[in-house]
Design brief:
This protein is mainly α and 194 residues long. It is built from ten helices and no strands. α1 packs parallel to α5.
Length: 194
């Protein structure tokens, strides 16, 4: 079975958002909420999180397993990670357009980067046809590639694992340059993500 160009566009963009951008959100989450203290942070915020109308029963089970020491961000999907970043101290500030809208292209805040990942994830997941025109994929791709703070995390990830580097080459984000990788790598060596 051959894929159409539109189906191939959809799958490539879906992979970028699901695997690569989502992994960047997780790395960012772990930098703000280190794994060693995560169970304690969640315990301290349990009443608040259980009171949120948009947290599902399944998500609460993931956040509060029977053995609290088993909680790990490895089990959190992008939606849950962004929800926690929005609601656990220090709360991530929303972009000017809010969390449920695509941020303005000039907004380069971390909140805007997170909102972009969330917005495109929702757009992809709720697609009825699984196709993406070449015009749309170029626009969407451009929106994600402008996320310097999120992609900086991705570059750090890519430098640690050759298979991710291979996937990155397949995806070919055109605006990233070798110099960008060096700067991000230097930041990572100094224990700062951004």
């Amino acid at each position: 079975m051959n894929l159409t160009i539109e189906e191939s566009n959809f799958l490539r963009f879906y992979f970028l958002n699901l695997k690569i951008a989502s992994q960047a959100v997780k790395v960012y989450f772990d930098s703000v909420h280190p794994p060693a203290g995560l169970a304690t942070e969640l315990a301290n915020s349990e009443a608040k999180l259980k009171g949120l109308r948009f947290i599902t029963h399944l998500q609460l089970q993931i956040l509060y397993p029977s053995n609290a020491s088993n909680v790990t961000s490895d089990n959190f999907d992008t939606t849950l990670l962004i929800c926690l970043l929005r609601n656990l101290p220090p709360r991530q500030s929303a972009p000017a357009t809010g969390w449920d809208n695509l941020p303005h292209p000039g907004d380069t805040s971390i909140g805007a980067d997170l909102a972009r990942v969330k917005w495109y994830r929702n757009k992809l997941v709720h697609s009825n046809d699984g196709i993406l025109s070449s015009t749309d994929v170029i626009q969407y791709w451009g929106d994600l590639e402008g996320m310097k703070k999120i992609f900086c995390v991705l570059i750090v990830l890519l430098s640690e694992d050759n298979s991710w580097l291979w996937l990155w080459i397949i995806i070919r984000i055109p605006k990233l340059k070798k110099g960008d990788m060096f700067l991000c790598g230097e930041s990572a060596r100094n224990n700062t993500i951004f």
